[in-house]
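hey m, so remember when u said the C-alpha cells were messed up on ur end? i reran from scratch. heres the input so u can diff it against urs
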Amino acid sequence: MTLTPVPAFDDNYLWLLDNGHEALVVDPGDAAPVLAALDARGLTLAGILLTHHHGDHVGGVDALRPHLQGPVYGPVHEKLPEPVQRLEGGDNVTLLGLQFAVMAVPGHTAGHIAYFAAEVPEGDPLLFCGDTLFSGGCGRLFEGTPAQMHASLQSLAALPPGTRVCCAHEYTLSNLRFAREVDPGNAALADYTAWCEAQRAARRPTLPARLGTETRINPFLRCTEPALREAARRHAPLKLPAAPSPVDVFATLREWKNGFR
C-alpha cells in the first residue's frame, strides 16, 4: 500500500491510498490534483472517504464521480454531495481490502467521523482524522463543545502509538509554536519542532505524524498533565479553579490558541 499526501489549496492534504492498481481518496476538496495523481500512476478510483461537510473536504466529489468505480462514504449527520453511503461511529467499511473502523469524533463539526485501519499490509495502522486532530494541535470548535472535542481526542489518543495520523492540513509549524509557548520545558517537543522545521525547509510534508509522538508533544492530548494544567491556570487565572478538570484545561487551551499569533 502506498500512502500519498496530495497537496491542495494553500495547506490541505487530500490523502491518496493505493495498491498499485486501485486507490481511495480521503476528503477530496479539489478534484484536479486527485485526477492528476491518478492519471500519473495509472490508478482506478475505487472509493472516497469523507470525514465532514466543509467545502475544502467535499468540493471535488461531484467532479470525481465520472471517474469513480466505487462508493462515496461519509458521516450520517452531515450535509454532503449525494449520493453518499452514510456511516456513524461503530460502523466498519472495507476498501482496497482494508477494514476501516468508523469513529465518531464530534467537535470541529457536529457529525465529524474518522477512519481507522488497524491492519495494513507491510505498514503501520492508519488514521484519517480530517480536522479533528492535527500534528501539535486540533481543529477549531465550529459546531461542537469542548467536552465533545476533548472526548474525541482522547478516543484517538487511545489508538496504537505507531498509528500514522493523516490529518488534512499542514498546520504543524504554527501548532508547534503555540505548543512551545504552552509547554516550553518539553524536550520531545523541541526535538520534534526541529525535525518539522527541517522537513518544511526541504519542502517535504510533516505528515503523517505518529500518534505516539503526538501523545508526548500535543498539548490538546495532554490536558491531565500538571504542566498543561498550570499553563492554563496562568493564562486564565480568574476563569479556572485551583484544580481544573481536563475539559476546563482543554477549553482554555483551545480559546488561547484561537487568538495566538
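this time it looks ok to me. The mean pLDDT is 97. if urs says something different then somethings off w ur setup not the seq
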